[in-house]
Design a protein that fits this description.
Blueprint (H helix, E strand, L loop, with lengths): L1 E4 L4 E4 L9 H9 L8 E5 L5 H8 L4 E5 L3 H13 L6 E4 L11 E6 L22 H13 E12 L4 H10 L9 E6 L5 H11 L9 E3 L2 E13 L5 E3 L3
Parallel strand pairs: 3-4, 3-6, 4-5, 6-7
Antiparallel strand pairs: 1-2, 7-10, 8-10, 9-10, 10-11
């Protein structure tokens, strides 16, 4: 099956059970730079490697896909081969394997962000509040992005954004909210548990919320684009 990125004239080859392009991924792809010529890119928490594939197809000279789940790394390699980008992309199991500081021009992250209490598998678990992976990639980006490099990360309204902002503040950094956003339906198999979890925790984290649209429960997903500068300040910009 071919999914055509019509605006940018790129074909993404999608194979059943190998490469699934989710609504989150499609949104991220639509906001990624159209050209990444000669840039060094990281896909943090790459899953099946959709964002890595797009980065390679858009001209990145080197793409590092970080994914701790070995079964997803196996699927990722099939996907890279299927899309003829294997020569540009290499996968690693942990961010600890990245030894180069101030190395990446872009880091893209479509994170696992469901709280462990409602996740259906380890792939979706992201700690008690769904922030573990988000905090991890912020710390990783603060060390490995080049000066004026950019971290693009998706953060859902079901995660307590205040914790992300506190994490940035602890690094002497700053981020503004709502750079861009999309509404995505809850995953059907966990919709009731997600709703219950938000209802139980929204008093503690009052920015967490869900929305009802056309009878469906939806989460708002915000895109943050964060640049780290020499004086250790952070500026959020739209792409």
């Amino acid at each position: 099956m071919l999914i055509l990125d019509r605006e940018n004239s790129i074909e993404i080859k999608e194979k059943e059970k190998v490469c699934y392009v989710s609504s989150w991924s499609k949104f991220m792809i639509s906001k990624m730079p159209l050209r990444l010529d000669d840039m060094v890119v990281c896909d943090f928490g790459a899953g099946t490697g959709v964002l890595s594939t797009i980065a390679a197809l858009r001209g990145a000279k080197n793409v590092t896909a970080i994914e701790k789940d070995s079964s997803f790394r196996d699927l990722m390699k099939q996907n890279f081969k299927h899309n003829l980008v294997s020569c540009k992309v290499h996968s690693v199991a942990s961010s600890c394997e990245i030894l180069n500081l101030e190395y990446f021009d872009y880091i893209f992250c479509n994170p696992s962000c469901y709280p462990s209490a409602v996740g259906t598998s380890n792939f979706y678990h992201a700690g008690e509040t769904g922030m573990d992976m988000i905090n991890e990639v912020i710390l990783f980006a603060s060390k490995t992005l080049k000066i004026n490099g950019c971290l693009m990360i998706l953060v859902p309204s079901l995660s307590p954004v205040s914790l992300m902002l506190e994490s940035l503040k602890g690094l002497g950094l700053y981020a503004s909210r709502d750079v861009d956003s999309i509404f995505v339906p809850f995953r059907t198999n966990i919709s009731h548990r997600l709703k219950q979890w938000v209802d139980n925790n929204s008093k503690k984290y009052n920015e967490m919320c869900y929305f009802e649209r056309n009878g469906e429960l939806c989460e708002r997903v915000d895109l943050y684009s964060i640049r780290f500068t020499k004086d250790n300040k952070t500026k959020c910009i739209t792409i």
